[in-house]
Every structure is written in C-alpha cells, then in structure tokens.
Design a protein that fits this description.
Number of helices: 13
Largest sheet: 7 strands, mixed
Helix content: 25-40%
Distance between the termini: 16 Å
Number of strands: 16
Structural class: alpha/beta
Length: 392
C-alpha cells in the first residue's frame, strides 16, 4: 500500500460493481440468485458461477440472461483457480467494450466450499481488474435449519459469515415448531456476534431484496458520494469489542432486536471484530509502516480491514483503505470528509488474533506505548519481526 499514490475519488470512469454471493453447501445461494435475477433491478447483470467438481450442475438451475453468464468448473475459487477467474472477468470486459454484451453489474456466486478471501483478493489486487471493477459487497447465505451445525463443523462457513456485508437467512419458512423458532433466534444472535455490522435479512419474508443487498460499498452508486459511516459501521465493531450487543436481528424497517446470551463454540471464539480510533492525525509514512507490519505479522489472520484515515500531511483529504488478509486495495483519497467525524477509524475482522495485540501495535506507531511496551523504533529494529518481507 502506497499512500503517496492514492487515487482520487473523481476523474475516472465509474468501475463496475462486483457482488460476491457466498454461503455453505445447501444454504440456498442459487435460489437467492434466481430470485434476484428475476427482479428488474438486476436486468443488466452479468453472472459468474463457480462450481466444485468436473460437471457443472448449478448453472442449469439459473435462468439464462442473454450471454452474460460465465461458468467456472473444475474446482473451488482458491489459488489454483484464480487465473480462471481473472480470465472470466477480463472476457466480460472485452465483450462489454466491444459491444457484444451490455451489463452494469457483475454477481459472482462461489462454491459452498469456498473461502471468500481469494475472490476478494483477486478483485482488489489485479492491476487491470481493480481499475474496472469495484467490490460492492459480500452477501453470505446461511441456512436457518442447518446453519448452527455448519458453523460448528466448518471453519469456512464461519469465515463466510465474518467477512459478509449482508447476511441472508434462508429457509426460515420451514421452521414450524417452537423449538425450531427458538433455535433460529439462537442462530441469529450467534451471527450478530460473529459479524456485528452486517444486517441479517430474512429471505422468506422478502427482506433479501436488491434494495437491501446491493450498494454495500463505499460509494453511493446513485449520488457518486462516499457513505463512510454505513460502509465502516465502526460503531457496531466498537460496541461488540466492549461486549455490547449491537443487534441480534436486523429488520430493514425497524431498529435493533433484542440480544440473547449465547455460548460461542470453539470456531466462533477464533473470530474477533473490533475497531481502532484516534483523533491524532497519522503521518503517511507511519500508516504505511503500520499496515506493512500488520500484514507481515498477522496477514493470514487478518480476514478483513477497512478504514478512513486522517493523514497528517493532508488532513482535509481523508484516505480510505481496504484489505483482505495481506492484500490491500489501492487506497482512495476522498475530496473531503463526508461528515463531521474526522477521526481515523479502522475496523478489523480477525481469526486467532486478539484485539489487544493489534491495538498495542497501533498505539506504538502513534507514540502511545505503555512504559512496558515497545515503541515504534523498537518494533522496526527487532530482527525477529519480518517487517515488509513476509506475506503470511
């Protein structure tokens, strides 16, 4: 990440919004995709479908929408298939530029076994794709019947929930007993603890609409202005870090629901969501060193990082940063602060990484180290720290 080369938020063609649709096997991703594509709001959407196995089946269940569909076969969206994903996304762009197809949005449905991180990294780090696409958001579908067991048994499903911008609860219409309804409430509470900032939408009652699922990104696609407060949701992470339940269920037309006590299982305990804030302007070099060291030390454990930073050299022009594990999206410089809150705010979702470790590192770079903690110079001089050279 280079702050000096941060892009300005204007003066370039509007990138195509990319929505990643994920969720574990059998959660109902294809059913949701079908319903979304039937809505006129997605009539100009290209679809990329990924499948696990040699023979593709799911695409047969998705209604054809002209020729704007690409099927990726022979594997999950992991490192081995990233080249195929790049080729598919580039092919869509060539066809668009040559007038062979017309679309204004792309939806990518991953296989149920996929870790969403490689998908996000591909969209955020490829030198050409990052100019033409922008990540609009991650939608994770959770099965209301089997979701709790899936979270207990599969870490991939926990990560899918943790990095989501929107969570869709499916199959709630099949919960027909008091015991099943009570289990639903426990699941909803668990999801809200894993990801305190993501609205939880009930598909069976029509909440999983394009209006509620799309436009999750930094910029309002209609007004072309940043909506930092909604995108960051820093208050939700800060509340969760203090043990205050932000919400248990989200109803688009109502406020937060009641929270319930819940014993998090061993997978859940590995996920942390928290926020870092400071009123102190941060020097560009200090920010770069902090991010580089954070990636070197904890890259694999850093599921997602989002933030807006007050740079000391240009305090009137906030810097927006976004990363997935050790891969950082090119930073974006806004033309002004979008609201009256000019604090630096970073939100992090981590795995097997305590918030205190990151906070101490952040404080050290800001010169706020406690007497018994190393300062920035000590950290950078430590030969045991792989500063700037390890992509772990």
């Amino acid at each position: 990440m280079t702050v000096a080369n941060a892009r300005r938020s204007h003066g370039r063609a509007e990138p195509i919004p990319l929505t990643v649709l994920t969720g574990f096997l059998g959660a109902g991703k294809t059913s949701l995709l079908n319903r979304l594509l039937a809505d006129t709001a997605l009539s100009d959407t290209a679809v990329i479908i990924n499948e696990f196995g040699e023979i593709g089946l799911d695409h047969l269940l998705v209604k054809a929408i002209d020729d704007n569909m690409v099927l990726l076969q022979s594997g999950c969206l992991c490192c081995t298939l990233r080249g195929d994903l790049v080729e598919a996304m580039e092919t869509l762009l060539r066809d668009l530029d040559n007038g062979r197809v017309a679309f204004r949005r792309v939806m990518l449905e991953t296989t149920g076994l996929a870790d969403p991180a490689p998908v996000l990294q591909t969209a955020m780090s490829h030198p050409y794709l990052v100019l033409r696409y922008r990540l609009d958001g991650v939608i994770t579908v959770v099965d209301a019947i089997n979701g709790a067991v899936t979270l207990d048994e599969h870490m991939e499903s926990v990560k899918q929930v943790a990095v989501a911008d929107r969570i869709v609860l499916s199959k709630t219409d099949l919960l027909d007993t008091p015991e099943k309804l009570a289990a639903r409430e426990r699941l909803v509470t668990r999801l809200s603890v894993l990801n305190p900032a993501a609205p939880i939408l009930d598909a069976a009652v029509g909440e999983a609409s394009p209006q509620n699922l799309l436009a999750c990104g930094l910029f309002d696609p209609d007004q072309k202005i940043p909506d930092v407060k909604r995108w960051l949701a820093a208050e939700a992470y800060a509340a969760a870090d203090q043990g205050i339940p932000h919400h248990a269920v989200h109803d688009p037309g109502h406020g937060p629901g009641e929270a319930h006590s819940h014993d998090r299982n061993r997978h859940d305990e590995r996920i942390r969501a928290f926020a870092l804030t400071t009123d102190q302007p941060v020097a560009a070099a200090t920010l770069e060193m902090f991010i580089d060291l954070l990636r070197s030390l904890y890259g694999r454990q850093l599921l997602r990082l989002k933030g807006i930073v007050k740079i000391a050299e240009e305090p009137a022009l906030p810097l927006v940063i976004h990363g997935v594990q050790h891969v950082m999206h090119p930073p974006v410089r806004l033309e002004r602060w979008p609201d009256g809150d000019e604090r630096t705010r970073l939100v992090l979702i981590t795995r097997d990484l305590e918030a205190t470790a990151v906070k101490r590192l952040f404080d050290a770079f800001l010169g706020k180290s406690a007497p018994d903690q190393p300062d920035r110079a000590a950290l950078l001089d430590n030969p045991l720290i792989p500063f700037g050279g390890d992509d772990r």
